[in-house]
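lol ok so funny story. i was supposed to be doing the assay writeup but got distracted and ended up predicting the structure for this chain instead. priorities right. anyway since i did it might as well share w the group, maybe its usefull for someone
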Amino acid sequence: MIEQVRSVSSLFTTSGPAGATMETSIAGSAAQTAMQPAAQPPMSFAAVLGDVATDAVNAMKLSETKSFEAIQGKASTREVVDAVMNAEQALQTAISIRDKVVTAYLEVARMQI
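and the output, tada:
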């Protein structure tokens, strides 16, 4: 999933020192795509966000399952704590991404036409 996020982030413009703007060219991202296996198409931004949401939901389901297993005596406390911490981290990641998307939307909405 990190590779997918990196491939999406390579499409954005970055600012260099003294306000100079460096653009990542499409050729650069095409070269990265060429390094990936041919069977894997490039990921869209919506697909990356969907994957993050799916991973967060799966982590929460696993956490819930481990909690029930602990109540039944089938899982150790460490397994439960690990699953809950992973779920919490996934939830915090999803919340921060949501906040960034909302902030970006509000900035676009405030732009003058």
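The first helix runs from residue 2 to 9. DSSP finds four helices and two strands in the chain.
back to the writeup now i swear
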